[in-house]
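If you are new to this repository, start here. Below is one unmodified record pulled from the training split, so you can see the exact layout before writing a loader.
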Amino acid sequence: MSAHQTATAHDRRPDAAAHSVGADGTGVLANLKPEVFFRYFEEISRIPRGSYNEKQVSDYIANFARDRGLECYQDDIYNILVKKPGTIGYENASPVIFHGHTDIVCESDEGVEHDFAKQGIKLRIDGDFIHGTGTTLGADNTVGVALALSVLDSTDIPHPPLEVVLTVQEEVGKGGAQHFDASRLTGRRLIDFNWHDPKSLFAGCAGDISARFRIPAEWQKAPAGLTAMRLFVKGLSSGHSEFDIHLERANAIVLLARVLGALLDDLPVRLASVKGRRQPVRHSRRRRSSHVASSSGPEACKRDRPECRRRYQEGVCSQRP
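And here is the target side for that same chain:
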């Protein structure tokens, strides 16, 4: 899903105003159908659950399973497996595996301070859509987790034996899936709930590779007489490598690096810091900044510098910002 996901609210409200609290105090999504699904979606949304911070949501699911007498396995990094027997008439059917992931993408709008390590998502309804308030919604993959819990909680949905696997660290390289002990599964058919289109099936994945580079840097004390400046790249559109890669959108980190490279080649500039966020499968759209210091003063850096302009344009090119 894109950086700001939306989940459809199936009952269109008569007014298009955004709602941030439930009218009866029970929750923002209390009046939406199907009730069970949206109840779990909202409960999970209250839990902080960025990648590597999935313990709390994993414990929530483990307690959910134990309260219903379901078999539950939780591993050392908080992957979780819940098993439910088949309903009457399907007791001996072949098991089906459901899969989803518990971590979400944690991004906030410019100017919004949100501590994703401690705060859940504040939901709001605007017309037919549910949004996060100044943050990503986390529909990827809260939708999948809420669907799985809805089926596990049901007493009126016929189904074969179910093996629900909810993994961690999906958004940062599928680390949970790689760590999970698949020998605990007996099913040979799997439905992946981590897909954005309910009218289509997704089969297969090209995968992704994460690489870490360590570059030795020698820090020096800045000499007197330098002027400190801060460079920004902002105002770009976000995107997902799975759905938006063909749009060739510009990446804020790449553009900043190109401009810095040109400045370092052309002026007596020293680099003090570079700040940006890391999200492997999403184009960086938010403001990325760098602190530099120059003995030439700010005016020299502000003047039209053909090499800076050329490298920046190469980064944008036919790309849509």
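Two things worth knowing about this chain: The first helix runs from residue 35 to 45. Residues 1-6, 8-25 have pLDDT under 50 and may be disordered.
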